Amino acid sequence: MTKEVQMSIKMEPELRDQFMSVAAATHTPAAHIVRQLMRNFIARHETPNATTIAAMQAADRGEGTRFESTDALFKDLGI
């Protein structure tokens, strides 16, 4: 079971009111929205993992697979 903690955030009253209004209109708990915003923020700022770093270093050395176009890359990836 995950332990939950509380957090206080200072903001303008108007921003809070708008946020709470939109949360209510979408039937989404405000805490759920804040947690998702935090997860998205963390994901955008995480450092690459070891596999990604190794691939980037190989590319810098001119190693690895080269594709003629993004279409060729996407085809190779199956997307």
Detailed description of the structure:
There is one protein chain. The chain has 79 residues and is an all-alpha fold. It folds into two domains: 10-46; 49-79, no CATH class. It has helices at residues 13-25, 30-45, 50-60, 70-77.
Q: β content, as a range?
A: under 5%
Radius of gyration: 21 Å
SS-based class: mainly alpha
Count of distinct structural domains: 2
Helix content: 55-70%
Number of strands: 0
Q: Which stretches are low in confidence, meaning pLDDT under 50 for 5 or more residues running?
A: none
Order of helices and strands: HHHH
Give the overall silhouette: elongated
Major beta sheet summary:
none
End-to-end separation in angstroms reads 38 Å
Output the number of helix runs: 4
Question: Residue-averaged pLDDT, rounded?
Answer: 89
Helix and strand layout, with pairings?
Elements: H1 13-25, H2 30-45, H3 50-60, H4 70-77
Characterize this entry briefly.
By secondary structure, this protein is mainly α.
Key attributes of the depicted protein:
79 residues, 4 helices, mainly alpha, 61% helix, single chain
